[in-house]
Design brief:
Layout (H helix, E strand, L loop, with lengths): L3 E7 L3 E7 L6 E4 L5 H10 L5 E3 L5 H4 L2 H8 L2 E5 L11 E3 L4 E4 L2 E7 L8 E4 L3 E5 L2 E2 L2 E2 L7 H12 L6 E4 L4 H11 L4 H15 L7 E2 H7 L8 H12 L3
Parallel strand pairs: 3-4, 4-5, 5-6, 10-13
Antiparallel strand pairs: 1-2, 2-3, 7-8, 8-9, 9-10, 11-12, 13-14
């Protein structure tokens, strides 16, 4: 059995992710940017909340932590390296650690670039990658370097094609518009542009995608060198 996963829209374009281990019923939420929609979803599901998992310290990923922990008695797990910038942690994690939700285990991946303390949670079915990898894009280099991001994306790219990519923002259509300026003849990217637009027109999220799709359409994941990634990232930063 695989973990149950649901996207919870938060703020203007964030997603928090709700997880449930099927064997034990234990639940977690990843990157709660605000408490209210997450609390409502948990109560609609009729479950509690055992864990809050954090990929990085930015407010739009952690602002709901304190309220949710108080409401449900949830414990909080995040990067030891970022503990001074995160809400109080019950479990401080390091890259290479295993985090267990019931009988579902995730490997903690080092994923700096957007921030220096960024981590990702890699379950067998899905990776929760915060603001490192987006569909057709990657995070801005606010603290890390292009080399940091290149290494982080290589780590994620090593996961199987079927891995669900559960990232922190609904940036897909904007990212696709830029990606088409990098690879205008990429048929897979053009196809994804049509599908993503139809999904958004229907009010559906474009996420999660899969690593197989991202390898086909994402210019940052397809960059062959650090220099290529730096050039593409600089162009995206100036793209309007």
């Amino acid at each position: 059995m695989t973990i149950a996963i649901k996207a919870i829209p938060c703020l203007s374009d964030n997603y928090a992710w709700w997880l449930r281990d099927p064997a034990t019923g234990q639940t977690a939420v990843v990157d709660p940017g605000e408490a209210r929609p997450i609390s409502a979803m948990i109560r609609a599901e009729g479950t509690g909340l055992d864990w809050i998992l954090l990929t990085h310290h930015h407010g739009d990923h952690v602002a709901g932590v304190v309220a949710l922990a108080a409401e449900f008695g949830a414990r909080v797990a995040g990067a030891a390296a970022d503990a001074h910038r995160l809400p109080a942690l019950d479990e401080a994690l390091r890259p290479g650690d295993s985090f267990t939700l019931g009988q579902s285990a995730a490997l903690v991946l080092d994923s700096p670039g957007h921030t220096l303390g960024h981590i990702a949670f890699s379950f067998p079915e899905a990776v929760f990658c915060g603001d490192t990898l987006f569909s057709a894009g990657c995070g801005r280099l606010l603290e890390g370097t292009a080399a940091d991001m290149f290494a982080s994306l290589a780590t994620l790219a090593a996961l199987p094609d079927y891995t669900l990519v559960c990232c922190g923002h609904e940036y897909t259509e904007s990212n696709i518009r830029f990606a088409l300026t990098v690879e205008p003849d990429n048929a897979a990217l053009r196809d994804w542009a049509e599908k993503a637009h139809a999904m958004r027109e229907a009010g559906a999220p474009t996420l999660p995608t899969t690593l197989g799709l991202e390898r086909a359409v994402n210019p940052f994941l397809r960059a062959k060198t650090v220099e290529d990634l730096a050039r593409i990232r600089a162009a995206k930063d100036n793209f309007r």
